[in-house]
Amino acid sequence: MAKSIKIRAKIKGDTTTVKCLMTHPMETGLRKDSKTGQLIPAHFINEVTAESGGKTVMSAEWSGGISKNPYLSFAFAGGAKGDDVTITWKDNQGATDSATAKIS
Amino acid sequence: MSMNIKRRVFLKGSLAAGTVGVAVGAGLLTPQAVVAAWNEKAFKAESVDDALAAAMGEASNTASDAIKIKAPDIAENGAVVPVSVSTDMADVESIALLAEGNNTPLVATFMLGEGAVADVSTRIKMGKTSDVIAVVKSGGKLHSARKSVKVTIGGCGG
Predict the structure, then answer these.
(1) What is the complex's ipTM, to 2 decimals?
(2) Which of A4, B48, B95, B143 is the least buried, fewest Cβ under 10 Å from its Cβ?
(3) Domain count, chain B
(4) Residues of A with CB under 8 A from a CB of B
């Protein structure tokens, strides 16, 4: 599951805005396979954590109600140019991935 | 005869093993550590009030003009509805995002850490035309705002 997250972090004034895109099917578990008629098992990201400067700046819990290949943007104060922003997700099947980007 | 019995036993055994395997695959038997932090009760709730009670501790909230929801008036594709929630309120602890018309209305909760600005955007799925509700927990109280989004799946965007 490498490289499933793209992050862009920009600082303007003293506010850092982080935008990220993750690659994930985000299956709700309610959809049926059109060929077999079987339910497609639920498979979605349910936890997202964002860290910067050793602190958790934001954490989120999601359901399958988030669109496929989720987009997330948020902002925080107190970042500095060159600081790392790390985003980690976990899905309901136990898979996990994380990526780090520098604030520019 | 004995051959047959063995065959039965074998079939039963493999069938049981198969079922467990499927259950694990479907996330029904996800290891406890994984689901421990995730608020399953809130996300499985089928009404807005139940979801809020489980996610934010209470269901009562007051409508507030200080919360801004940015979402399209008409969403051409209900599977991808861009939604932004922001507020000027101080001491925002968490933000919950709900789509009232979905089977399980709670879509996401955001816990803001130290220094976080109350401004989050994401894309959500909406089953049908309904209100998007944003609930902000600030100073221990819940404030909410809603915006109606018309979903025209397969429509011509009119």
Answers:
(1) 0.87
(2) A4
(3) 2
(4) 15, 28-30, 41-43, 46-47, 55-68, 70-78, 90, 92-94
